Amino acid sequence: MQSGGPGDEKFQEELRGGPDFALPDEDADIVFGGPVTVITGRQDGIVGYADQFRSMRHYPQGAFTVVDAAGHYLPFEQPAL
Question: Are 46 and 15 in contact (CB under 8 A)?
Answer without folding.
Answer: yes
